[in-house]
Amino acid sequence: MMKxxxxxxxxxxxxxxxxxxxxxxxxxxxxxxxxxxxxxxGKSTLLRTLVGAQRVRAGTVTVLGEPAGSPGLRDRVGYxxxxxxxxxxxxxxxNLGFFARVLGVAPGAVDDAIDAVALGDHRDRVVARLSxxxxxxxxxxxxxxxxxDLLVLDEPTVGLDPVLRRDLWGLFHRLAAAGSAVLVSSHxxxxxxxxxxxxxxxxxRIIADGTPYDIRDRTGAADVEEAFLRLVExxx
Length: 236
Known about the structure:
- This protein has 236 residues and is an alpha/beta fold.
- 33% of the residues lie in helices and 28% in strands.
- The chain has seven helices and ten strands.
- The strands form two sheets. Strands 6-7-8-3-9-10 form a six-stranded mixed beta sheet, sandwiched between helices. A four-stranded antiparallel beta sheet has the order 2-1-4-5, with helices on one face.
- The longest helix is centred in the C-terminal third of the chain and has 16 residues, at 162-177.
- The chain is globular.
- The mean pLDDT is 92.
- This is Efflux ABC transporter, ATP-binding protein.
- Residues 6-228 form the ABC transporter domain.
- InterPro entries: AAA+_ATPase, ABC_transporter-like_ATP-bd, ABC_transporter-like_CS, P-loop_NTPase.
């Protein structure tokens, strides 16, 4: 796989009269990259540009060597939105089976994906009857079908208990160890320490980029949350 899975150059996104992303540039490599920042800072907008679901005013976004949203990327990029994106009137297994046929992946991938998100005991339950966290895990299972080269996850651990959060982060690192790039957004700063690399975001701009250790060391902070606050103060 190429070194840079994602290349963003001078990206501007404007919504109405509000400039959401003011011309940012960044690269993403294989591994687990955390995109952290407060709600409303532009994280979801940036993620949508990577999967080709966001209209941009200017700049370029290249994913796996192709323009974001290209047809050739459909089975190479997995995307999980904050809202569950599966069919509520189908069971967990039926949802996975449907998307497996759409993607053309082997039937055995369904069981693997269900097991990966710890929903084996709920495979025959209708999705509408699951909890919000369980529905989100069904969406994640769909994104895992076909073993994507890039997995884009928008706040995937919201509403999950600590054990499931720990297990999902373990899954993200196993995927990265197998060669995938995993980009995880979150507004929960304590998840930062679980990432190989961090992009700290505020008001549409990347204010820090590095390993958790590098960012703490650079700011003299005890943890990433304190580092973020110090960076905000410097930028003010």
